[in-house]
Write a structure and sequence with these properties.
Number of strands: 6
Order of helices and strands: EHEHEHEEEHH
Radius of gyration: 17 Å
Strand order of the largest sheet: 2-1-3-4-5-6
CATH topology: Maf protein
Strand content: 25-35%
Number of helices: 5
CATH class: Alpha Beta
CATH architecture: Alpha-Beta Complex
Largest sheet: 6 strands, mixed
Number of domains: 1
Shape: globular
Helix content: 25-40%
């Protein structure tokens, strides 16, 4: 059995990743709360999701015996030239709440016509061990930004994002339905297909 540290302090991301990875044989999932050491502070200053995920995974893999899986994810809005992008969690300010970020996005999209409200959620997972990057795995889901928050499920921009082909936002969907089509699930599928060769 090999330990896999999920390198996130976001309890929602941790839960989504744990649900999917617990079925992988040979892995024991570990969160920060189970560690005896304080995780180092990592400045997410990359210009891409991949750069931030890789930096987190490599840094933490030097402190932890076993695999480290780091996630960087967010939403890219076409009408805003890809923003908020890597600044999704701090779109309105550092340590912003989901409500504050949602409010800013709604305001910026006020006069954007229906046909130009397209967006995509992006997730990049980086897997590392002992300071070595083993691989990165990307997932995407395309959709549109609705004009007001809908639903109380999920987190982040979920209440504002309606995936293509769906009548509900991620915020309105039951978690099990969201997890079938989410960007994080797509990235995890690719990870699951590859991780066996490292076990």
């Amino acid at each position: 059995m090999v330990n896999l540290l999920i390198a996130t302090t976001n309890k929602h991301k941790l839960k989504e990743l744990e649900i999917r990875l617990k079925s992988v044989k040979g892995l024991k999932i570990v969160g920060f709360s189970e560690l005896d050491i304080e995780p180092p502070i990592i400045v997410e200053d990359g210009t891409t999701f991949r750069a931030n995920a890789v930096k987190k995974a490599l840094t933490l893999s030097r402190y932890f015996e076993g695999f480290v899986l780091a996630d960087d994810s967010g939403i890219e809005v076409d009408a805003l030239c890809g923003k908020p992008g890597v600044r999704s969690s701090r779109f309105s300010r550092i340590n912003a709440t989901d409500a504050e970020n949602n409010k800013k996005l709604i305001k910026l999209m006020e006069n954007v016509p229906e046909k130009k409200r397209t967006a995509q959620f992006v997730c990049v997972l980086a897997l590392a061990r002992k300071g070595e990057l083993l691989g990165t795995f990307e997932g995407f889901v395309k959709g549109r930004i609705v004009d007001k928050r809908k639903g109380k499920n999920g987190f982040g921009y979920d209440p504002l994002f309606q995936p293509d082909g769906c009548k509900m936002t991620f915020g309105e969907m039951p978690p099990a339905s969201k997890n079938k089509i989410s960007h994080r699930t797509e990235a995890l599928k690719k990870l699951e297909a590859s991780i066996g060769k490292y076990l």
